[in-house]
Design brief:
heterodimer; A: mainly alpha; Arc Repressor Mutant, subunit A; about 55% helix; about 10% strand; B: alpha+beta; eight-stranded mixed sheet; six-stranded mixed β-barrel; globular
């Protein structure tokens, strides 16, 4: 296990909000409101992050090195001066993958126990 | 939105500053989406969400700061250990000292409305407080309107038989209304009733919680049980609560006082037997009660001019039944603890200031990379509070462990338990103290760190800046030195006082004497001949033991639990002849002895002879008197052969003995009269019949105890044997509270000494390290080592002088205020002050040594290279 994956393993399991934020940032840099919208869309309105939960998670994720604030702004017409944009880091990607793996394992076990549909 | 802004304030400022600007529009947008009733739902969920998230952010920050602090402490454990140690000592010492002081002087007594409880006593010239006589009690109680109720009590001791061994118990005789007056009811059974006071009523007893537990194992069926007190059966009717101690903690039971017509005869008016305790009516002040009682006493004097001559009344709060000496002892202790706390706080402040200066660069770097002022403040506060919490917890643990050791400082005559406890209020104060220390001294470095960005801090080779800060630090060290001088001088004075007291001549030679107390129960020992047979047998057998040179019985050992026993003296031709009126001017201590008492105790016989076996009942009644007695009544005459009336009989002086301090080393004792144990009528004055045995041996007195016990048990197996102790132990108890106080003060002074030395050391080390470059330059420019040495030393000496001079003056003031404790040692005692100043010089040298050496070792080249 290399240094990064060791560090990643130490952060698991991820709180749901953290995992969703990582998913929202997987394809592009987003600002806070965009993250909320993405999460809401992705979960079909099931999960609406509150401002407090969002920024608390972001603060912690910045400290853990899962995100960085980015200075590269998107196209000027989309930009809003007041907004901060966030980008997933290499560690963030590794952590998100590790969490996904962990969840898959969990689902496999649930299937074997007959708790979930699909092949055993 | 105003509400939302307010909610945002729940977040730490650093978080709010960072994200608040983004959170507001997010929330505004959300509000816009919801309409009507949904708005309320959004608000409610937002309020809940903010509370949860804000708390979580706070916890995150706390975790961060704590782990940062712990890492920092691991890197420089010296700072953390020193700071925690200082806090532990400061808070521990203060809490322990204040707990005991609070316990004795301040905490409300465990009675209902204790502020309304007062003592009522008689006064006569020379005696500020004397027991009430039964007739005066009856008359005064009937006339007084200030009291809701007025009760009386007096101490007694009985021998309880029926167990495996006879036991001597201390208790109190009281009027039936004592418990209701104090407002405390038994936890089991009932209080006394007026019926119990009647002559001929069944004898009853109420047990103390302690006696119930120790002697009867807390037996739930104790009520109705019959005990044997002396030779009379008594029935248990109640048990008092655990915290009820009245009048003092050694009282184990209460029996009702019984009055007969005889108790109220005029002749009884001078028989002062009872302490009065009353509950004032609501709204009645002590002053008003005192005024009323004085008027009643004056009236009483007019009605009974002979018996009540010069008799007044005295009313004072029960709480004040603490001797001036005990009070001072405790106040001195608290003052000393305050000094230690002051020194500890000054030291800690200094330590934190120095650390803040040392960390300027670190903080400046953090500020430069974006940590806000608030974030740094919070970080530093967490650090100080963490130190304060650890120090406070250890300090409280120290106090809890130390308080029982201070039990000797609790005077025994108080209606409180004899073991002090740390109480919750004092603990709360100590906890608040630790937190306050954390906040106050946490702020000091913050003041510096806050001015961000502190660019000075980033500059390489910053020279010692802030002369103002250094002045503050110097002032703190000066205060420490002054406080430690006060402590050193006070301790020195009290040590001198202790030595003075220990060197006082008690009037006897204690070494090599064993003493014990027995009881001669009535009516078996009513007759003199029975008692004499017992004395003769015991003394003969004890004297036959190896090493024993002599043995004798006396009414009461000097300095033992009973120190009173005054009887009026009338010398033929005296104006007050045979009047029986007692005043301080005409009383003497009455003691019956068996032959050989003076030899046994090593009391010098100045004139004449000892009481002898020949002083029997059919001969002229003889008396040996003390020197002060001879001087008082026969100043310029030869006392031998003179006569006086004392204890119902004419006595002829046959000898003069040295004065004995029977009331205690530090108290004035009345003149003494020793009478022959044979020269008393049967059934008379049995209270003073000799029951204390003293044995002088050439060997170890304590080793004699088993053999002596055997002898007494063979003589009469029913007799209790108590208070077996050597005479030196008995005398040592006189100074026990002083010894404890001196030890505690010495410990405080030692702590103060070390802390002050640490303070000097810290300040000078810091100054030297800040001036390394300057010293390097000076050396490079040709300054001699001698000059450098002078530079550092003069700084140390100046600090020391600045502290010592005011310290000596303050110490003198402290000494003056506790003059009553000093046993005649002058508060400006030259030896003590010289000693304290000498120690301060030593302290300065110790504190200055290391920094001076470091300054001398400064290498100009490397010192300049860092610049």
């Amino acid at each position: 296990m290399n240094e990064i994956s060791k560090e990643a393993a130490g952060l698991l399991p991820l709180p749901p909000a953290t995992f969703h934020i990582l998913l929202a940032l997987a394809d592009e840099d987003r600002h806070g409101y965009a993250i909320i919208q993405d999460v809401e869309a992705r979960t079909g309105g099931e999960l609406t992050l509150s401002a407090g939960t969002l920024y608390r998670s972001i603060q912690r994720m910045l400290e853990q090195g899962l995100l960085v604030e980015t200075r590269d702004r998107p196209a000027p017409e989309d930009d809003d001066e007041r907004r901060r944009y966030y980008r997933i880091t290499a560690l963030g990607t590794v952590v998100a993958k590790a969490e996904a793996r962990r969840l898959t394992q969990l689902v496999k076990m649930a299937r074997a126990a007959g708790f979930a549909p699909g092949k055993a | 939105m105003r509400l939302y802004d307010w909610l945002l304030r729940l977040y730490p400022a650093s978080f709010r500053n960072e994200y608040g600007g983004e959170m507001r529009p997010l929330f505004a947008r959300r509000l816009q989406q919801g309409r009507g009733a949904a708005t309320l739902g959004i608000w409610l969920s937002t309020i809940g969400e903010v509370f949860v998230n804000a708390a979580a952010v706070h916890v995150d920050l706390l975790k961060q700061d704590v782990s940062y602090t712990v890492r920092g402490m691991r890197r420089s454990p010296g700072f953390a250990i020193t700071a925690i140690l200082i806090l532990t000592l400061g808070i521990g010492a203060t809490t322990a000292a204040f707990s005991v002081t609070d316990f004795v002087l301040i905490r409300p007594l465990p009675f209902r409305d204790p502020d309304r409880l007062v003592m009522l006593l008689e006064t006569t010239p020379g005696y500020a407080g004397m027991e009430l006589s039964a007739p005066n009690y009856r008359d005064w109680k009937a006339a007084a309107t200030s009291f809701e109720s007025l009760a009386i009590y007096t101490g007694i001791a009985v021998t309880m038989t029926g167990g495996s061994e006879p036991r001597r118990l201390s208790g109190a005789t009281c009027s039936a209304d004592l418990m209701p007056t104090l407002g405390v009811a038994p936890i089991v059974g009932r209080s006394f009733t007026a019926d119990d006071e009647r002559q001929g009523a069944a004898r009853v007893v109420i047990l103390s919680y302690r006696l119930w537990q120790t002697e009867f194992g807390g037996d739930p069926d104790i009520l109705g049980r019959t005990l044997v007190f002396g030779d009379a059966p008594v029935t248990v009717v109640g048990v008092m609560p655990r915290e009820f101690h009245f009048p003092s903690s050694d009282v184990l039971f209460w029996v009702p006082a019984r009055f007969t017509g005889g108790d109220y005869q005029e002749s009884e008016r001078t028989n002062n037997k009872f302490y009065g305790v009353g509950r004032l009516k609501r709204g009645v002040t002590i002053e008003r009660a005192q005024t009323e009682m004085s008027l009643i006493a004056a009236q009483s004097e007019r009605q009974h001019p002979r018996e009540n001559k010069d008799t007044g009344a005295l009313v004072y709060p029960v709480r004040d039944d603490v001797s001036q000496r005990s009070r001072l002892l405790l106040l001195a202790l608290s003052g000393a603890a305050g000094c230690v706390l002051l020194i500890a706080c000054a030291n800690l402040a200094n330590l934190l200031l120095a650390r803040a200066l040392g960390r300027r660069r670190e903080l400046a770097v953090r500020a430069a990379i974006g940590a806000g002022r608030e974030r740094l403040t919070r970080q530093l506060m967490t650090e100080s509070l963490l130190l304060a919490a650890v120090g406070g917890a250890l300090g409280i643990a120290l106090a809890v462990a130390a308080v029982p050791l201070l039990a000797q400082l609790v005077p025994s005559g108080l209606p409180i338990s004899s073991t002090p406890t740390v109480d919750l209020r004092v603990l709360a104060v100590a906890a608040a103290l630790s937190v306050a220390t954390g906040i106050v001294f946490g702020m000091a470095p913050v003041g510096r760190a806050g001015r961000s960005p502190d660019l000075d801090g980033l500059r390489e080779g910053t020279r010692a800046g802030g002369g103002q800060k250094e002045a503050l630090r110097s002032a703190l060290v000066v205060a420490e030195i002054a406080a430690s001088v006060v402590l050193l001088v006070s301790t020195g004075l009290l040590i001198r006082a202790l030595l003075t007291v220990q060197e006082l001549d008690p009037g006897f030679q204690a070494a090599g004497v064993l003493t014990l107390q027995t009881d001669l129960p009535l009516p078996d020992y009513n007759r003199v001949v029975t008692r004499e047979a017992f004395y003769a047998r015991v003394v003969a057998e004890v004297t036959a033991l190896r090493g024993v040179t002599s043995a004798a019985f006396i009414s009461f050992m000097p300095m033992s639990s009973f120190r009173g026993g005054m009887w009026p003296v009338s010398v033929k031709g005296d104006t007050d002849e045979a009047s029986g009126i007692r005043s301080a001017n005409n009383v003497a201590a009455i003691r019956y002895v068996t032959p050989g008492y003076f030899k046994t105790l090593g009391i010098a016989l100045k004139r004449g002879r000892d009481i002898s076996a020949g002083d029997s009942r059919d001969r002229q009644f003889a008396a040996v008197v003390s020197e002060s007695f001879a001087k008082r009544y026969f100043a310029d005459q030869d006392p031998i052969g003179r006569h006086f009336t004392f204890a119902f009989a004419d006595r002829e002086i046959v000898g003069v003995a040295a004065d004995v301090k029977f009331r205690g080393l530090e108290r004035k004792s009345e003149p003494q009269v020793y009478l022959s144990s044979q020269q008393v009528d049967d059934d008379m004055i049995t209270f003073y019949a000799p029951k204390a045995l003293a044995i002088r041996t050439g060997g170890d007195p304590a080793a004699l105890a088993p053999a002596v016990r055997d002898i007494i048990r063979r003589a009469n197996p029913k007799l209790p044997i108590t208070d077996v102790q050597t005479l030196p132990d008995l005398v040592d108890r006189e100074t026990a509270s002083r010894v404890v106080q001196v030890r505690v003060l010495a410990a405080f002074a030692a702590v103060a000494f070390v802390l002050a030395a640490v303070g000097i050391h810290g300040l000078l080390s810091f100054a030297v390290s800040q001036r390394t470059a300057e010293i390097g330059v000076r050396i490079a420019l040709g300054a001699q080592r001698r000059d450098i040495l002078a530079m550092v030393l003069s700084r140390g000496v100046k600090l020391s002088l600045a502290g010592v001079v005011p310290g000596v003056f303050l110490a003198y003031a402290a000494g003056r205020s506790m003059e009553a404790l000093l046993a005649g040692v002058h508060p400006a005692d030259a030896v003590t002050i010289a000693g304290a100043v000498g120690l301060s010089v030593l302290m300065t040298i110790v504190g200055t040594l290391a920094p001076t050496l470091r300054a001398l070792r400064v290498d100009p080249i490397s010192a300049l290279r860092t610049e």
